[in-house]
């Protein structure tokens, strides 16, 4: 399934960007900076600490997600699986935002502007930022510039949180030796062996960093009050 989704993201970048934004927007539209909604009495499908995802919000994001996943997955589309994927995405996003807040992270105006203007999705044929393409995306997504920029700001915060967790993570000598030992082809030239060893060691480091990130996310999940009303999904 993940392979199919990756293929769909390559073949349909505009659709993929739109649905990823709509999922991210679950914590932007009508919720404020950290997702606190004023309409707390409105029926909700999930609550992450004090953040509530209302039935109306979830329904809108789910419907848009379904349109994307039906097109990408085709015969492999399974409603229950996609439904769970959507709610897991919004919950995990909020957990990362909570972690970013606890780490005291922030995103400046210049940093936000640079992220948007360097996005090749909004570039013209000469490689420069095209305001018309940017406005076309906003129109197609049925959102405002403020809402989209808030979602980008949150993306940057999440990436910063992950980088903070990964910073300083290195392989031990034993882990490095074990990674290099995986190269067993006796026909490799010294240059090719060095290249393969470097690649293998880097891959081992990335896997270790990913484990650290997931471990931190699981700790945050355990320390967070999460309520999901599965019957309402």
Fourth CATH level, the homologous superfamily of one domain: Porin chaperone SurA, peptide-binding domain
Q: In the CATH hierarchy, what is the class of one domain?
A: Mainly Alpha
Q: Helix-strand pattern, N to C?
A: HHEEHHHHHHHE
Strand order of the largest sheet: 2-1-3
Q: How many distinct helices?
A: 9
Uncertain residue ranges:
8-16, 26-39
The global form is globular
- Helix content range of the residues, please? 55-70%
Q: Kindly report how far apart the N and C termini lie.
A: 21 Å
- Average of the residue pLDDT scores: 83
Gyration radius, in Å = 21 Å
Approximate strand percentage: 5-15%
Multimerization status:
single chain
Number of β-strand runs: 3
Major β-sheet annotation: 3 strands, antiparallel
CATH architecture of one domain: Orthogonal Bundle
Which fold name fills CATH's third level, the topology of one domain? Triger factor/SurA peptide-binding fold
The secondary structure category is mainly alpha
Quick structural gist:
This protein is mainly α and 233 residues long. Helix content is 64%, strand content 5%.
Secondary structure topology:
Blueprint: H1 2-11, H2 13-24, E1 44-48, E2 51-54, H3 55-73, H4 79-102, H5 109-117, H6 131-141, H7 145-166, H8 173-181, H9 190-222, E3 226-228
Antiparallel strand pairs: 1-2, 1-3
